[in-house]
Design brief:
The structure is a homodimer. Chain A is an alpha+beta fold. The first copy, chain A, is 29% helix and 25% strand. The first copy, chain A, has a single domain, classed as Aminohydrolase, N-terminal nucleophile (Ntn) domain (Glutamine Phosphoribosylpyrophosphate, subunit 1, domain 1), CATH 3.60.20.10. In chain A, strands 10-1-2-11-12 form a 5-stranded antiparallel sheet, covered by helices on one side. In chain A, strands 5-6-7-8-9 form a 5-stranded antiparallel sheet. A two-stranded antiparallel sheet of chain A has the order 3-4. In chain A, strand 3 and strand 4 form a beta hairpin. Chains A, B: InterPro entries: Ntn_hydrolases_N, Proteasome_sua/b, UCP009120_prtse.
């Protein structure tokens, strides 16, 4: 499995990926799931991938040479000359469909799903930052102010903290911290996600990327985040009053009736019926 | 979908279930997923169910009359005369198999999975408390000191806090609070889980259940837990230092090399190859 998350903020973008790949529990390896494309002062793009590794590697390879016809009669569109991230995402979708044309039928015969999901974001000179999630059919959706982040792979464990923290106004470093906390929750609860991590921080309108980091076990900042978050979470939990069951203001009233559900039936007799 | 969790502690057991059932997003209803069986001073049992509602309702109905042959020639074994929770879990497994015999083939023809999962725990006079998770094949596993809780349904959002808090030594009220926090994370991130909740707290060796509560939107304790947890989580998050990227003690060192992965390749040229 995999966990990747990308966030689009007013201040910039955060991309974070783990590196564990597995084919069953007894075949675990490390592969990079982040790829950065940059033509300084012109475009920055970052691709995160999850799913079948043979598919995602092929997609990344093909993305380099993939071309789309320009209906206005110009040069074929590639990720290097696309005039918008939307067009670049179309090129990526076309690369996914090319791999499907090549491998789809054989995979199906072997009973293997054509399973790949991608996050692709960045900025091209002349427009704002954009962030896309690309599906295995090559179709895609774009992040908006209401949904400023995408996750692929094992996304559930790490979603609550993103839901609570991330808005378009979140500062870049805070979003990076949030992505790392989200990754920590995922690492803690799911073995199929593992270190090292790759993280890229892009500052809006710079059209180049300087902050890319590979985070291993011994990374002091990530170690601090992991231990502090675990401790603080525990303290936050301890700070909440226990239920008291005694009728006082904050206690749980001892009723098992519900306006919507009616009384809970306690079965106390073998011949009583439930439904 | 559904979220149910049950915890077995030295001090007792906690059972918590939501009540949302849905067949697609446009058919949402409330059904109780908790059933309590009690013969005071002799046995207490609690059943939580997830999966296809027609299957789980049938299983609950059949559980009342299900009998297993006693290989020692005694009376047939039911949940009301079983001498161990293990035998009671076998009776439940048999009820699941009975429903499968009745409905399995027709469901398969209709392309519907035989999907049911159950948590079944309690105590029978003469032995300690026991907690089981029963699968759709009628087979089951038992909770141990290393894994003192089971979850069914939409389990991932609420797992991190359980992983961090629950041990067999956790006091009963603290475990109840933890189950509610776990439920809160699930409610926040997944629409298919909804109020009201049913919660039952069983104190070890009492062989009867007094603390059963139905929790609706207006329950003051759960409202307090939800708002306090959200706020405290945010404070805990804010308390963690941001990454500084400047080479100081807690910053993220700006390297994109990894001992295991090697350097991250930034693609800066259309003709460069990735792999």
């Amino acid at each position: 499995m995999t966990y990747c998350v990308a966030v689009k903020l007013k201040a910039g973008m955060v991309f974070l990926s783990d590196s564990r790949t597995n084919a069953g529990l007894d075949q675990i390896s490390s592969f990079r799931k982040m790829m950065v494309y940059e033509k300084a002062d012109d475009r920055f793009m970052c691709l995160l991938s999850a799913g079948n590794l043979s598919i995602s590697q092929s997609v990344r390879e093909m993305l380099q040479t993939e071309q789309l016809d320009d209906h206005e009669g110009g040069e074929p569109i590639t990720i290097w000359n696309a005039r918008s991230m939307f067009d670049a995402a179309r090129v990526l979708g076309a690369a996914v469909r090319h791999v499907w044309q090549r491998d789809g039928e054989s995979l199906q015969r072997a009973g293997v799903d054509f399973n790949v999901s991608l996050i692709f974001g960045g900025q091209i000179r002349g427009e704002g930052m954009r962030l896309f999630q690309v599906y295995s059919a090559g179709n895609f959706i774009e992040a908006t102010a209401e949904t400023p982040f995408f996750q692929i792979g094992e996304s559930k464990y790490g979603k609550p903290v993103l839901d609570r923290v991330i808005t378009p106004e979140t500062p870049l470093d805070e979003a990076a911290k949030c992505a790392l906390v989200s990754m920590d929750s995922t690492l803690k609860s799911n073995l199929s996600v593992g270190l090292p991590l790759d993280m890229a921080l892009y500052e809006a309108d710079t059209l180049r990327i300087d902050k890319i980091v590979c985070i291993e076990e011994n990374n002091p900042y990530f170690r601090m985040v992991r231990s502090t978050w675990g401790r603080k979470l525990r303290e936050a939990f301890d700070d909440i009053e226990h239920p008291t069951w005694d009728g006082s203001q904050t206690s749980v009233p001892l009723i098992c009736d519900s306006e919507r559900l009616g009384p809970l039936k306690k079965i106390t007799n073998p011949r009583e019926r439930l439904i």
